[in-house]
Specification:
The protein is mainly α and about 130 residues long. Helix 2 packs antiparallel against helix 3 and helix 3 runs antiparallel to helix 4. The chain has one domain. The chain has four helices and no strands.
């Protein structure tokens, strides 16, 4: 399980680049709402992570890929809700301030991502790829 968590973490790191990249493009360049940008980045990363985790981390041979993907996405959607809640609390409801609102947003997103990584690993280990 430790090796799987490490692999899951590496896959998650690739997803982090996808997530942050899409979030940044949508939020900073296209000027989408921060929560829509965050959700879009998160969903793109979840899809990439499913493929990599299916093949490498969990070596799944489940022939019902659609159901497995749906399970992965549902867990990711709950993770997205957790992620967004953490962002809401840290960005909009805390009195903690930084010189840059952008820095506060992205540091908060990093904290949210760490929490959701743990959630996603254990839920996928127990349900999606069991």
């Amino acid at each position: 399980m430790v090796e799987q968590f490490f692999q899951f973490g590496l896959v998650g790191l690739s997803g982090l680049f996808i997530d942050f990249g899409i979030t940044w493009i949508l939020k900073e360049r296209i000027h989408f709402n921060k929560y829509i940008a965050n959700g879009s980045g998160f969903l793109a990363a979840a899809t990439s992570n499913y493929i990599l985790n299916r093949v490498w981390t969990f070596s799944s041979v489940n022939p019902n890929i659609a159901l497995e993907y749906l399970s992965f996405l549902l867990i990711s959607i709950v993770g997205l809700a957790i992620n967004s809640l953490i962002l809401y609390i840290l960005v909009d409801k805390t009195k903690f301030t930084l010189n840059s609102p952008k820095l506060k947003f992205y540091l908060s997103k990093l904290v949210a991502t760490a929490v959701v990584t743990i959630w996603n690993f254990f839920m996928n280990l127990l349900f999606t790829f069991s």
